Amino acid sequence: MQDAVIFDPTIVDDDTRQQRAEVSEASSPLAALDAKQRREFNKLQKRLRRQVGNAIINYGMIHEGDRVMVCLSGGKDSYTLLEILRNLQRNAPVNFSLVAVNLDQKQPGFPEHVLPEYLDGIGVEYYILERDTYSVVKEKTPEGKTTCALCSRLRRGSLYGFAEEIGATKVALGHHREDILETLFLNMFYGGSLKAMPPKLLSDDGKNIVIRPLAYCREADIAEFARLMDFPIIPCNLCGSQPNLQRQVVKEMLAEWERKHPGRIETMFKAVTNVAPSQLADRELFDFAGLEAKQARMQERRIDALNVSNDS
Prior knowledge:
Layout: E1 5-8, H1 14-27, H2 35-59, E2 67-71, H3 76-89, E3 97-104, H4 114-122, E4 126-130, H5 133-140, H6 148-165, E5 170-172, H7 177-191, E6 200-202, E7 209-211, H8 219-229, H9 246-260, H10 264-272, H11 291-311
Parallel strand pairs: 2-3, 2-5, 3-4, 5-7
Antiparallel strand pairs: 1-4, 6-7
Helix pairs in contact: 2-3, 2-8, 3-8, 5-6, 7-9, 7-10
């Protein structure tokens, strides 16, 4: 099958945009909320906006003139990412544009109409990129093995390459706080490395800057926001039903820790942002071999300081 791209620039004037907003507000599931529920929703939305805004500022994710490609999978995280970025875009101190991109991996039964209808409805520029990675993953993955690693690599490769084609300066992914911690423990338990998902990353080939604006956001908040917004969620049928996924095991472990010790996830995430290289054991990251020389320099400065003190 030949690859295909569907593009809708959705260029509309201000009056049309206002009419769409009014229709969207009237038909939104939020219209059915009572006053108390509306207040709770507003608090939730403000919290997500604040956390995303802080992540963007702290890591310098978005700059003047950026064209941000939002990778939209059809899951709760990427829908929330797109909505919060659209929300922030209205009052941001810098001008940036958004373009949504969905990778249609040709999974059997994938509802191809859902995302175009949703994106047309909210007036966002978008592309649907068709790549039959599903067949490749099923062919290359041995029976009984998980498909996530290969699927992720193929998906990343397709999206990163396409970002360059459309002139995107940033690639935004919907990973949240728990995703980052799960990846940390997966790498520790199964990969023998101490690494997670950075909020901002330069791709290995140097062509793409990847950002994760939801890095500070709780998965529970995202799930509740997606529920209230009634996003048309599209489940992943490629790997979602696989038993004993390592990531699912780690997710359950973290959830159990949080139930027994509330606040532990917040503390662990803080640790990811507060690393002390000298207290670990990576010889590339810290000059352990040079500690004697450092000690000698410190002693020299101490002796010089003592001499100055005695002379006075």
